[in-house]
Amino acid sequence: MKQKVILDVDTGLDDAAALFLAAGAEELEIVAVIATAGNVGLDKTVENTLNVIETTGLSCPVFAGSAKPLIRQPVEAGDFHGESGLDGPVFGKRVIQELQEEDGVSAMIRLVKRHPGEITIISVGPLTDLAHALRREPALPSLVKEIVVMSGSFSGGNVTKDAEFNAYADPEAAAIVFSSGAPLVMLTLDITRTVTLSRERLDFLRTIEGRSAEVFSQCMDTYMANYEAKKFGWPQMHDPLCVAYVIDRSRFSAEDRRVVVDIDPASPSYGMTSREAIDGEGGVIIPTDVDRPWFWEMVERSLRNLP
Ligand code: BDR
Ligand code: CA
Q1: Which tens digit of pLDDT belongs to each residue from 114-170?
Q2: CA of 72 to the centre of ligand 2 (A)
Q3: Rounded to whole angstroms, how far apart are CA atoms 169 and 70?
Q4: In the chain, domain spans
Q5: Active site residue 203
Q6: Distance from residue 166's CA to the centre of ligand 2 (Å)
Q7: Class of domain 3-305
Q8: What pTM was computed for the model?
Q9: Cα–chain center distance at 22
Q10: pLDDT value for 62
């Protein structure tokens, strides 16, 4: 049986890579995609998400999530993703996808209740939608199968010295999610920074036939150029690594910890995540290493599976 997933994304170039990986993965069934504000504003992440899902040929519903963080002023990451959030590909008129009327948080709650214990939520943007859902439906932690997030860092940030973008973009939401008691997996910069795309690999993936591989490659061209311009090295595969974890967790090693978030807006480390030892199990699962050649095999497989 396929694993049912809801993807919560702020599409975003590496979010697009995550969507392609999930859409082409034989192990997964995407029951919904929710676009949230993050890398760029909500109007743009919705548009980008609809365009990427349209490209994959899937007809899964796409919803709009939160337009702004719980408390803080919005911060964006256009310097990595371009002004549109998805600079590179040019999309035509959509024929399959249109935005659902229901809001993303209501859809998340409704779908998880309809399939108790069956849905994994993969969140690769700020954790605002999940925080709203947890507040509105306190039973959510026992109704989800698992929540897998790209958030945080224990070794320095990418937006401030200490904070990772998704945690920094809504620290109060991250704190709600990390203390919710839900079964939680957290992929931090410590692991996602170790999975990077080389020019040789991108040139190889570009040879795969189909519009999905073409759009993926155009996104990664921009992502690579933006990393180069910022002297950040090869582009990091943050968001698709969360999808890879759900495809096959046996390819990862992991530790179990309690996670706390700095939610003092006056602190220089606002949005920083830190971990504490716990007795036994029951904390947040934090993947620490991954089989990288396998990850790239999965990306290639998904692109070959898609139109
Ligand atoms: C995260 O920040 C965003 O810019 C990326 O899409 C990713 O989710 C990495 O810190
Ligand atoms: Ca993202």
Answers
A1: 999 999 999 999 999 999 999 999 999 999 999 999 999 999 999 999 999 999 999
A2: 18
A3: 10
A4: 3-305
A5: no
A6: 7
A7: alpha beta
A8: 0.98
A9: 11
A10: 98
